[in-house]
Amino acid sequence: MKRTLCFILALFALWTASGQSFLEDVRLSLDKGFEGVYAKGDSLKVYAEVAKETPALVKIYQNGYFKEQREVCLHAGKSEVFSGSYDEATALMFRLADPANPKDSTTIGAIVAPEDFRPGFDEPKDWRKFWRKQLKQMRRQKMEVKLTPVAIPGKDSLDYLCYDLEVNCITARPVRGYLALPRGAAPRSLPIAIKAHSAGRMTDSWTKANVKAAVKLAKSGSGAIALDINAHGILNGQDDAYYEAIGKELNGYSSWSVKDRESYYFNGMFLRLVRALDYLCSRKEWDRKRVLITGGSQGGAQSAALAGLDPRVSMVVVDVPAMWDTGGMLVGRTSAWNKPLEREGVDSPAAKVAPYYDAANFMRHYRGKLVVNVGLIDLTCPPACVWAVYNVCPASSKLMHSCAWKGHSGKYSVPGEERGEMKKRMGKYLDDAIDDYLR
What we know:
By secondary structure, this protein is of the alpha/beta class. The chain is 29% helix and 28% strand.
């Protein structure tokens, strides 16, 4: 009766409130704080802090799948909404929602024994043979390079050069992006730094190569030969009509039906990366030692591909990387984007092709340095999948940074001011790693 009365009163209070969202009203936290990482057998507690008595629906997800739901009454102050422990690797999400509007919610994540996760796909026996053949065919084509000077806005034009770069490739489209570097750089004085882009609509700013981004990367550390590469080999600096047309042509490319290894869309995307690096390494300014690649989401997939295909890569810095364990479904958890098994089935051609493009099988061959950011409430690139790939990578050094409130890309399940602080903290991990390596 008391519990029922709590819900009736609290629901009335919510209905007559000023319209604030549940996210703004309820603050979730863990007893392990920011990173949310637990060992086997650790006590795991989730707390909710509210200003006044509030009803809530608690939904619990384990390894990406819905597990249970229950109603709770949150009392003013701090309330415990979950307590438990786990004896095996487990990724958890706790979502508190407004019973009157379940879509209005706030979420926090935790992960137990992440070092025990392993990828769903094994490496195919002919994985090396397949990719060696792809690279050999590509390199048979004589390289042709077009460099078109591009204006740099502001004072950076005094110290840096920028070019619209195009390099031919056997793929449907050539390598395209913006190349930037310090003016007057001496031979063998600069590392190489490549930025790979996230997926999205072709009209979205984050899917396009960008002059400012290329110059920013070129300014990192003590300076670099920086390439902001377009994932699709499309033209730079075009009007909206061009990108809208390309968007229609490539609509849904990540979920196009998979027929065979050679025609898979990501074949061209990954080969262009190697072609780009072949050109960059031919430049006299390269120091012959350091090659860094960085990217988020789909850019993380591209980073893994280049790192696994080309031993010249010596540093990988990624944020919520996609295609890191696309076979997670085979071992009892949701798979990473682009989720070919969920989409086409475990007996489909996709199930046979996907292992050749899964980040796990690229990163198994990478021995440089590695820094990764992961979000514990990311459903696009689930944390268990990212950790599974991280665990099988024999990197010379590696660091994983996690955040219990971080979703995919820039999404955080906390109110505005705190969200800004978390984004700044997670971003600094990556920026510092890039700066330190390029210094």
